[in-house]
Design brief:
Elements lengths: L3 H17 L3 E2 L13 H8 L8 E3 L3 H5 L43 E7 L6 H22 L4 E8 L3 H7 L5 E8 L15 H4 L4 E9 L3 E4 L11 E5 L8 E2 L3 E2 L6 H16 L6 E5 L10 E4 L2 E4 L1 E3 L5
Parallel strand pairs: 1-7, 2-14
Antiparallel strand pairs: 3-8, 3-11, 4-5, 5-6, 6-9, 6-10, 7-8, 11-12, 12-13
Helix pairs in contact: 4-7
Length: 310
């Protein structure tokens, strides 16, 4: 009896932990759109983020910022499109007070709803997403005539403690290095010592996300899929996703220019992604750039109409 009880408890605990680490199907619940908020707010909220606050503007200004065809290209190339020269972004900038803990909206995120017909397991869903993103990045680099360097598309190891104790699922990385003459990024000579190489300007797409933990009902802002169900890639919590700014330590750019080039680059990548892969870009107030949502190249601002006074 003395040997049996601990063994039984251990077995029960392992079964419990295994059950907790499996994918949950909660597709019977449907996200209810909140009309009082912007589409950007609803998308990020549906993904589970602590959403960025909508800027409240008077009409018709709120209608202008509710358009989806804003062009983030940098440098600005045309006065005929909706861009920073024709519609400044200053009205959307707000220095939101926060507490000590980091908010979900502080960092760039991937929000993804991988159709269940494309993957039978959470691990397959991560692979599908990684391949989809990598292909979009490579297409963008080809179109913008940027030479492509080292590529990494691989799963990480989350370890026993992370997996069973902290419930952190396995991470997945997509990294694509590239050269960019405007940012002073070149492929460093491998003979240069590592400590010197990391000081050089670096251009790379870097994304990290984790295996999905649940299957959800495909929300209305995603193109309908065959099953009506999707694997949700989390942008929040310990299993949150992350996307780095593409231009690090550029030798020829100011911080403001680097930030605008990063927005521009992600919009171009987004143009080659299906509707179920969405980028959230965090606010960069010092550079004059607000938080945005990118879906298939379209720009959604966190803006809503100011309620009229009675």
């Amino acid at each position: 009896m003395r040997n049996y009880l601990p063994g039984t408890l251990a077995s029960m605990m392992m079964l419990l932990l295994t059950a907790c680490s499996g994918v949950r199907d909660v597709s019977d619940r449907h996200y209810e759109y909140e009309n009082a908020h912007s589409l950007a707010w609803n998308i990020s909220t549906a993904a589970g983020m602590t959403s960025f606050e909508d800027a409240k503007l008077n009409p018709p200004l709120s209608s202008l910022y509710s358009r989806k065809d804003y062009d983030l290209s940098y440098p600005v190339k045309s006065a005929q499109t909706l861009n920073e020269s024709t519609l400044p972004l200053a009205p959307l900038l707000r220095f939101t007070p926060t507490g000590m803990a980091p908010e979900d909206w502080w960092f760039n995120r991937i929000l993804a709803w991988v159709p269940t017909e494309l993957a039978k397991t959470p691990q397959q869903a991560s692979t599908v997403l990684a391949s989809t993103i990598q292909e979009a990045v490579l297409t963008t680099l080809k179109e913008t005539k940027r030479p492509t360097g080292e590529i990494k598309n691989e799963a990480g190891d989350n370890g026993w403690i992370n997996k069973y104790a902290l419930q952190i699922t396995a991470p997945r990385y997509v990294v694509v290095h590239f050269a960019d003459s405007a940012a002073g990024c070149e492929f460093p000579d491998k003979n240069v010592p590592f400590i010197e190489r990391i000081k050089l300007p670096s251009c790379a797409f870097f994304a990290e996300f984790h295996d999905p933990e649940k299957i959800v009902s495909t929300p209305a802002f995603i193109t309908p899929n065959a099953t009506g169900k999707s694997y949700l890639i989390r942008p929040d919590g310990l299993n949150s996703s992350f996307v780095a700014d593409a231009f690090d330590k550029p030798s020829t750019l100011s911080d403001d220019e680097r930030t605008r080039m990063a927005y521009d680059f992600l919009q171009k990548v987004s143009q080659h992604l299906p509707s179920w892969v969405i980028f959230y870009i965090s606010p960069h107030e010092r550079a004059g750039m607000p938080a945005i949502i990118l879906q298939s190249g379209k720009v959604y601002f966190f803006v809503t109409e100011r309620p009229s006074k009675p």
